[in-house]
């Protein structure tokens, strides 16, 4: 196999499904571009299963490292994988590692990586706040004044 994926218009898949599927002999996946919607990916089921095995292994490896290795070594490796971690306070890095281990294992068991992507995005945004002193001061400031009455929630039937 050469390239990781190939791009083609979704209409080509619709007009020539067998020929399009045959392209998966040469690439891992096909990215089907759509005009008014998000792109789709087409891959072979056996490739998806192999990817799931790798993700499960990686999640277990991470959990094992966090449990058994010196924290300084794990932090150093984490900093190489996620350079923005440098902006997080030490206690936040510890919390990130704990959450990442739990979420990665859970996501691997569900074969759904979305929770890991969401967690990493949330922590990256936290690092962005810590990297900007003005933004950090603004976000960390206690609100002042009275914001008025809070409306009662709608009654549920």
Label this structure with key terms.
157 residues; 7 helices; extended; three-stranded mixed sheet
Protein described:
The model has no long low-confidence stretch (mean pLDDT 89). The chain has helices spanning 10-15, 17-22, 45-68, 71-81, 90-110, 114-131, 133-140; strands spanning 5-9, 29-33, 40-43. It starts with a strand and ends in a 17-residue tail after the last helix. Helices cover 60% and strands 9% of the residues. Strand 2 and strand 3 (40-43) form a beta hairpin. It has seven helices and three strands. 9% of the residues are buried. It is mainly α and 157 residues long. It has a three-stranded mixed sheet with strand order 1-2-3.
Fold topology:
Layout: E1 5-9, H1 10-15, H2 17-22, E2 29-33, E3 40-43, H3 45-68, H4 71-81, H5 90-110, H6 114-131, H7 133-140
Parallel strand pairs: 1-2
Antiparallel strand pairs: 2-3
Helix pairs in contact: 3-5, 5-6
Describe what is shown at a glance:
With 157 residues, this protein is mainly α. The protein has 7 helices and 3 strands.
Strand order of the largest sheet: 1-2-3
Summed over residues and divided by their number, the pLDDT gives a mean of 89
| Number of continuous helical runs | 7
Query: Helix coverage percent of residues?
Result: 55-70%
Distance between the termini: 58 Å
Order of helices and strands: EHHEEHHHHH
- Oligomeric organization of the protein chains: single chain
User: What's the shape?
Assistant: extended
Structural class: mainly alpha
* Number of extended strands: 3
Q: What summary fits the major beta sheet?
A: 3 strands, mixed
* Rg value: 22 Å
Q: Bin the strand percentage.
A: 5-15%
Unreliable parts: none
